């Protein structure tokens, strides 16, 4: 991962994670609003439901050692540690997130089951076959080398282990067009700029990379409809008095992200942004 991108991602999450936790809680990812996207529910419950739905979809029953790639402030890590009574290691590029995740683990009496550290997902500091489950909840979009990312996840996974990811994608590019339009590329470029992303790819491309990396039993699905309402809910909550005060003190990067929330909402509406899930085994 290039130093500049690394620093941009780190600074973005160092600055914004505290405000996100204050307004939204510990889960820094989309929510699940039913397969048709029409279920009305508490916004934090929707995020918990996404965790549960994707684990059920993956048919994951028992795991003992988990790597959470892009752990944020430990929301998924603590959830998985409790659900499976497992040992969970979380990595993030943000020292602020890693520190907060450790605090939250201590408060939940889960320090013995969890550990958090600053690390690069493209150069994981773990031995081969260290984990029986690798979880990536909305971190793939930040990876400048998608192939190396999946290679590293494969490397640290034990034979028979499961890899499960959810990630932002763009629409599949199919014949006869075979490309994204200039307007779509411009829309994506704005999202990349605001949210510190190098680029995103389509779900079929992720599936092909997983095959090339030697993953087995690959399964994918498009959950765009189920999660798309999330961004409008975020927009509605971003401009209450507490959020506005928090934005002012969080700095320009966070303010810019809040002012650009409609980019994601509009991306889903036009079919450009897709939400892909992928499950595979080693």
Description of the structure:
By secondary structure, the protein is α/β, with parallel strands linked by helices. Helix content is 49%, strand content 19%. The protein has 12 helices and 7 strands. The protein has helices at residues 3-24, 43-57, 75-84, 95-107, 146-156, 182-195, 203-213, 224-227, 229-238, 241-250, 252-259, 261-269; strands at residues 65-69, 87-92, 114-118, 131-137, 157-170, 216-222, 273-281. A 7-stranded mixed β-sheet has the order 3-2-1-4-5-7-6, sandwiched between helices. Helix 4 links the parallel strand 2 (87-92) and strand 3 (114-118).
Offer a concise description of the structure:
The protein is of the alpha/beta class and 282 residues long. Helices cover 49% and strands 19% of the residues.
Give the percentage of residues in beta strands.
15-25%
Structural class designation:
alpha/beta
Number of continuous helical runs: 12
How large, in whole angstroms, is the Cα Rg? Answer: 18 Å
Order of helices and strands: HHEHEHEEHEHHEHHHHHE
Mean pLDDT: 90
Number of strands: 7
- As a percent range, the share of helical residues equals 40-55%
Oligomer: single chain
Form type: globular
Cα end-to-end separation: 25 Å
Order of strands in the sheet with most strands: 3-2-1-4-5-7-6
């Amino acid at each position: 991962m290039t130093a500049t991108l690394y620093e941009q991602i780190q600074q973005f999450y160092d600055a914004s994670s505290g405000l996100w936790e204050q307004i939204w809680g510990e889960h820094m990812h989309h929510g699940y609003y039913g397969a048709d996207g029409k279920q009305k529910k508490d916004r934090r419950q929707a995020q918990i439901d996404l965790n549960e739905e994707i684990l059920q979809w993956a048919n994951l029953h028992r795991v003992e050692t988990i790597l959470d790639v892009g752990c944020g402030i430990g929301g998924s890590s603590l959830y998985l540690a409790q659900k499976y009574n497992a040992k969970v290691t979380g990595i993030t590029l943000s020292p602020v997130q890693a520190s907060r995740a450790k605090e939250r683990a201590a408060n939940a009496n889960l320090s013995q089951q969890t550990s958090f550290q600053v690390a690069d997902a493209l150069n994981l500091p773990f031995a081969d076959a260290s984990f029986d489950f690798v979880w990536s909840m909305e971190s793939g979009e930040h990876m400048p080398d998608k192939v190396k990312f999946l290679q590293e996840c494969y490397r640290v996974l034990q034979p028979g282990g499961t890899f499960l990811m959810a990630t932002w994608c763009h629409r599949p590019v199919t014949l006869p067009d075979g490309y994204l339009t200039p307007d779509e590329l411009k829309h994506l470029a704005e999202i990349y700029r605001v949210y510190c992303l190098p680029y995103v790819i389509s779900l079929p491309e992720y599936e092909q990379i997983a095959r090339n990396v030697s993953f087995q039993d690959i399964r994918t699905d498009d959950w765009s409809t189920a999660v798309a309402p999330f961004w409008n809910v975020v927009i509605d909550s971003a401009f209450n008095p507490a959020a506005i005060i928090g934005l002012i003190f969080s700095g320009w990067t966070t303010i810019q992200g809040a002012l650009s929330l409609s980019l994601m909402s509009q991306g889903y509406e036009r079919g450009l942004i897709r939400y892909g899930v992928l499950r595979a085994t080693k």
